[in-house]
Amino acid sequence: MSESASKVRSLSDEQIINRWGFDYYVFKALSAFRDADYTAFTHFTSIIENLVVRPVDGHSDMIVKLRCMQFLSRINNGDKLDLTFEEPKTPLESALSVLESICRDMSVPPREQECVKQAIIETLVMVCLRGGEFARAEEVLLRHFSDAADLAGKKKLFESLIRRRRSSHSVLQLSSYADFKQDMLDFIERLYRVPEPFLLQMLKRSGHPGVSSEPVTSSSQDRQKTSAAAEDHGSVSARLSLRSLRQVYGVLSERYGVSVSFTQLQQELEQEEEEQEQEEEESPELHLALTETQPETAYAGMTISRLVQEDDSQLSAEEEEETQIRIVVPSGPDSDDPEVQTPVRRSDTQNSECSSAQICTPARHTQKHNRIVLSSDVESEGPAASPPASRCSSRHKQQQKKSHHSESECVMMEVRCSSAQVSSPARPSSSSSSPAVRRSDRDTQRQSRILLSGDVESEDHAASPPASRRSSRHKQQQKKSDLSVGESAPVSTPARPSSPASVTRSDRDTQNQSSEMEVEDGGSSVQHSTPARPSATDAPRQNRSVTVSSESEDHSLSPAAQTPRRRSSPSSGGAHRRRRARWQDVSGTHENWSDEESLFSATSDRSSKKYSRKMWTVQESEWLKEGVQRFGVGHWEKIRSAFPFTGRTAVNLKDRWRTMLKLRLV
DNA sequence: GTAGGGTTAAGA
DNA sequence: TCTTAACCCTAC
């Protein structure tokens, strides 16, 4: 067998399946974008974002796809001037950077490149003007706007509007932002046509009725489809004979270069089943929960519970039960928003004046509501265009809800961290990729996230001085060993009130564990070599889960995960504690993933610039190594833009390289 | 943009 | 309190 084939064989089931999932969600995200269902788009990018922190079989076009997603995410948020993907750039400026990378990686005709660039810049100027940000408009105009003769008139006009502080002008209304988004999508699609994903093909081949690669058309439809798909999935698998499955697998695995044999998979499956059975003995409900049929729980609780069940076999039975109960409770009257359901659609905005504020608000609302949604599992979207005032009221609502549901939200965060990492459809993207889910003990970052997600919680989380942070950290650490994960509420300090954020620590840890994404890009896959570092009392990952499987063990050996900075609480007691200990053990640090790390998510609040530390993931280190191989040491900027680093500067790369050299990792 | 020394945050 | 990875600052 060829080397690559054996490499493929060495891939874990998770890597392969994540790759399928990745392809699928990229496909869906593009479809959603095409249908101007930007809410769904952000949901999908959020899923992708979470997916890629898990080990993924990184095939050749993965980076291209990631770039496209990055680009569209920035475009999608381009009318929100208060968001940033990379400070201090506006989303559209970030889009320009991504565009450069795209153009570098793929052969884009210079003419088209220039056109797209110019379109972005013009739109950015218009967005600034519409939003009354004249200084910024001027800056953009000076810094980016082409001096080409044919654009001189337009430039002059913009200059004049800036001078006169005019935020409305016929020119500004000529094109809507929604049109612009679609133009950018056209560009991406011209550049790279995403093939139909393997999973869809599988589903089609299974003869499953109603399966089409048609894009989602609206979030509500999406919901229906999603839930239908979820329901149907069970029946499909039930209907498929082993023989036909083997045939389909044969054909498709050949096409997609998956050379894990069917028999091998079967064996693994059997093995897993055995292990599952063992687990089942310990937590029979978990197994039950994995079935599609649900007890007559409220609708609202169902999907979330399934999410929990499908993914989080780490949850013990008792947790499971508790989780379900808690999730269902809040899905009361205020769990949905009647005024919602109006995504920004192209048709809507075409005729409208389409001021940036108008465009902005829905997304914000979405982001805000998502958290609620998450706990109620009723997807809702923000009102199409609500004035700031209504935002405020909705904010209050949110806060009220928060106080009511803080407990359940805690659970939700827990749910997310273990199960919904990859799959929560209700999870907002951008900021949302969870203000609260991310590193919570970073005031600045939390603050920025919070701001981004609609300022909902910002008041509660005023930045605290380092000292208090430290003390709160200590407190947490003290409590850590006593607290079970879901009980984070008591962990409250002025700096860190009891909120989902407190849970995020463990959440973070999980993410850390999963952060070492092994992209085996093409043939150059390099499993990260383990540095000879003492790995403390690495409690074995005894709580193996269906999702994490033995993968995580490999990862735990990675440098990032192996950093001695762990507070491994002695694993004693119930599953809570065991799991927690495991997270702590493999996490390396709770800060492996920070806000900026999200591939598609924006952060905001450029003002609060505080030193926050973000550990390097194995994946990033791999990129760096590859970059150095490709471009040579010292070309940090080139390397940075050649890989989808997020939140990393060239200097960061240089520093990391220095550290890697020091640690003899290279 | 990069190199290299200094500083800081956070785990041991 | 020590150690160290990540980050900052400044000179080039």
UniProtKB/TrEMBL annotation:
GO terms for biological process: negative regulation of telomere maintenance via recombination; negative regulation of telomeric D-loop disassembly; protection from non-homologous end joining at telomere; protein localization to chromosome, telomeric region; regulation of telomere maintenance via telomerase; telomeric D-loop disassembly; telomeric loop formation. Residues 616-665 form the HTH myb-type domain. It holds the Pfam family Myb_DNA-binding. It is found in: Chromosome, Telomere. It comes from the Eukaryota. Residues 383-392, 418-437 have a biased composition (Low complexity). InterPro entries: Homeodomain-like_sf, Myb_dom, SANT/Myb, Telomere_rpt-bd_fac_dimer_dom, Telomere_rpt-bd_fac_dimer_sf, TERF2. Residues 608-661 form the Myb-like domain. Residues 349-359, 495-504, 540-550 have a biased composition (Polar residues). Its main location: nucleus. Keywords: Cell cycle, Chromosome, DNA-binding, Nucleus, Telomere. Residues 209-234, 266-287, 310-604 are annotated as: Disordered. The keyword Nucleus applies. GO terms for molecular function: double-stranded telomeric DNA binding; G-rich strand telomeric DNA binding; protein homodimerization activity; telomerase activity. Residues 393-404 have a biased composition (Basic residues). PANTHER family: TELOMERIC REPEAT-BINDING FACTOR 2, TELOMERIC REPEAT-BINDING FACTOR 2 TERF2. This is Uncharacterized protein. The lineage of its organism: Eukaryota, Metazoa, Chordata, Craniata, Vertebrata. The gene is terfa.
